[in-house]
Structure formats: C-alpha cells, structure tokens
Write a structure and sequence with these properties.
The chain has about 80 residues and is mostly helical. The chain has 4 helices and no strands. The longest helix has 26 residues. The termini are far apart. About 25% of the residues are buried.
Length: about 80
C-alpha cells in the first residue's frame, strides 16, 4: 500500500522530476482533464475521488518523507487543474 500511495501522491512519478515537479504535476492534471469526458458529473466525481485519494496518499507520503508538504507530492497540482 505504501508503494501505491507514493505512486499516486507523486502523480505517477512526476513529483520526482529534478526541475519543476509541480509544473509537471500540473501537466498530468491537464492530461487527466483532457481524457475525461466533458460531463459535469464525471468531472465532479474525478475531483472528489482525487481529493479523497490525495488526502490519504499525501498523508502516507508525508510520513515516509519525514516532513510536511514534501516537494515530491504533486497530486494537489493535479487536483488544482481539474
């Protein structure tokens, strides 16, 4: 479960980018927005699910990295783009 949390919190590894990981996380969010159907219920569900999963995965990642809001955690940027 720890590995899954890290994969999700880092937006499939985008958070490990050596330069501008937050920007790359935002790009992942735009890609997700682009592939989702353009219906309000689907978009709303994606936001709620990303928030719930991100809360769990971010908490796990903070414990593993040993600090609050580690730079590798970019799922919040993904959520922001949705």
């Amino acid at each position: 479960m720890t590995y899954i949390a890290l994969v999700l919190a880092t937006a499939l590894g985008a958070g490990y980018a050596p330069v501008a990981p937050g920007t790359l996380g935002s790009a992942v969010g735009l890609l997700l927005w682009w592939v989702l159907p353009a219906s309000t219920p689907v978009q709303f569900a994606a936001i709620i699910i990303t928030f719930a999963v991100g809360s769990w995965a971010g908490s796990v990642a903070e414990r593993l990295f040993g600090r609050t809001d580690p730079g590798q955690v970019v799922l919040d940027e993904v959520l922001g783009m949705l």
